[in-house]
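Audit log entry. Action: structure prediction of a protein-small molecule complex. Ligand: pyridoxal-5'-phosphate. The ligand was supplied as SMILES and no pocket hint was given, so placement is left entirely to the predictor. Protonation state taken as written. Sequence taken verbatim from the request; no trimming, no tag removal. Recorded inputs:
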Amino acid sequence: MTQLTVDTLKQEILRKLISDKGREVKEATSKDIYYVLASIVNEEIKQQWFQTRKNYRDGKNKEVYYLSMEFLIGRMLASNLLNCGMLDTAKEALRELGFEPEDIFSEEHDAALGNGGLGRLAACFLDSLASLNFPGHGYGIRYRYGLFEQRIIHGNQVELPDYWLKNPYPWETRNEEEAVVIQFHGDVHMFKKNDGSLEFEYRNTDKVMAVPYDIPIVGYENDTVNTLRLWSAEVIHQNNGDGLLEASKEYYHDLDHQHSIEQISGFLYPDDSSYEGKELRLKQQYFLVSSSIQNILKHFKQNHHLPLSRLAEKVVIQINDTHPSLAIPELMRILMDDEGFSWDNAWAVTTNVFAYTNHTTLSEALETWSEEMMQNLLPRIYMIIDEINERFCKGIWFDHEELRDSISELAVIAHGRVHMARLAIVGSFSVNGVARIHTEILKKKEMRNFYTLYPEKFNNKTNGITHRRWLLQANPKLADLITDVIGPQWVKRPKQLISLLKYSNDSALVDKFDQVKHENKKVLANYIHQHLGITVDERSIFDVQIKRLHEYKRQLLNIFHVIYLYNELKDNPNQDITPRTFIFGAKAAPSYHLAKEVIKLINTVASIVNYDPDVRDRLKVIFLENYNVSLAEKIIPAADISEQISTASKEASGTGNMKMMMNGALTLGTMDGANIEIHDLVGDQNMFIFGLTADEVLHYYQHGGYHARDLYNTDDRIKRVLDQLNQGEFGVHNIEFKDIYYNILYHNDPYFVLKDFEPYLEAHELIERAYRNRNTWLNMSVTNIAYSGKFSSDQTVQEYATEIWKIKKV
Ligand SMILES: *Cc1c(COP(=O)(O)O)cnc(C)c1O
């Protein structure tokens, strides 16, 4: 890309400020500057975007399409500047013009088109695909409302709509000429043609227009710009000449109709890993896959002079969790009904095109749909799924006698429900889990019958994160220090961070890492002061748990420990402890009662602990509201401890753990998800592992033998904390936290909070001691950074590319 200097960029900003906004710099707002800078970046990008698309059109390359209901991309200005090689120049230019870069970047509203890890993974993958020169694109939905904005009012979570498009979004381009029609409902009519084959005709369908908005995905200093295509649902406007409406009755009917169509891309479902069986959600899923598959086939025909029977040579489609698995019957439908394929030929093509990523084994998150709803909303798709199911079940009956008794656990349609994971497995050539332990649990437990049927389909791809956003952009001080120490090659080859190991015992050098961490902690302390009016001690341990609020993630274990520490300080006010700041960020699904109770509890404990003079600033509890990508970028560089304390076997991978490791935080975690792979690399001596193992947890679930009440009765520390909840010590009303109390004692603590309490306490004691030994601590921290290159999504995407997608760099 063109190399702008600070001076030319400044001049360009000033020139555009006048031409676009009619203002001089002294009258300009941060927002003016944001738009002007975005527009300059866009000009840089557009040229490369055009060129990249042109290259892909020559038809030589196999391309991957990543279908996902969620893309949690966050802000784009700084990351686009970074990838264009302009970030430092731009920051300098902004400062010279009298603006703080962070103020300009934060004018952009986070694009929160995702809930958490799954959506953020999709965003990291796009960044890596482009940065590695892979021809790979995302397809998603342009929700008008993203994930709700969280406010904390009197300790409670309050949800506000996230109308992120209120101001123009500078990164998107509407592409009306690529719009396609999607059909819902209606009747399917079957005709026998002369040659004996069947023809299908759909009548009385509800038609919706899908209009794409394209967002450029800029590769890191490599001139590749891929595309994230987000579909928007619109009414198909019939041109009836004068366009006048005949009667007001019809006018209102039309408005209703328009509203119901626009609802399809209206809002992101805010349920994290469990889903409400809402027809609208099913509509959204079909809307995404039908528009994307139509578009993919159109481009295949334009770019490749090959018959559709050879689609799999040039196209591979990754489906991110089961949400887009209707893409499988949708491709079958188009191949058979529009392109004249026989069932067998269509099936041969389809099952060589799709690959499926599983993200969870939580049973409440395994998606199923009512057969009836599916049949009504998507009659032709239902027929095809039914046929897939028939053939699949027959195959088992005749070829796998050993599985006959398990047919209802394998069938795509069983007991009146369509099972999306089963559809995805049967229709894909690859099924992958997202961390080693997760894939093993899929093979040995959750999907063992499918693994018996299709051992060759199953494979592991451990998640990753883009080190460009999560280190270079979020923590430039650390990135610069690393480059000072080991040179700049790690930026293109993150595994070279391993060269840092040589220096992890050099005390003069690790002091510099300490300084960077300290400066980052100061910045976060300022943010906390600004937003909550609370002063935190920058020399205290910043102990961070940031992630969606879920019982299995066990924020409850964390806050129970805080209550325990508080009790200890009340009993022994002169106890000498290392000051601690516990930092939380978490959204709860609006309908998840218990999760919201935990948020309330954290805030209530905070309001007591933070203002108790006996505590004397040795303990602070901070809940930062509205956790999202931009807030994560602020917190992570300042973290000393990364809390990854899920009930073992429950967290498929986790990616927050990787982000914090890469920023020098030490993991306090269970042997779960990718924590295990972090442990493989850094060992016991460089992280704090505690608690039940996955095998132990699974054994308890299967055979019983755990009695939470026994722990309550025998461990005074536990009894005291629970009684405090029950007796209203933390809360205005004494019934406030009774549900938490009951869940633990009467539902036998389903996530083993009490069981892991003591080992968790002990791990915290080790942390306290380790933190006092500065050199050891810093050595551990640098060791973690050194090994974190393995968790760059560049590595993950490279593995997908060679082992699943079989695509090559352009
Ligand atoms: C990385 C990330 C997540 C995932 O965090 P986990 O700790 O893996 O659950 C969720 N939300 C945001 C905003 C993130 O950046």
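Audit: result stored. The first helix runs from residue 6 to 21. Confidence is low (pLDDT under 50) at residues 241-245.
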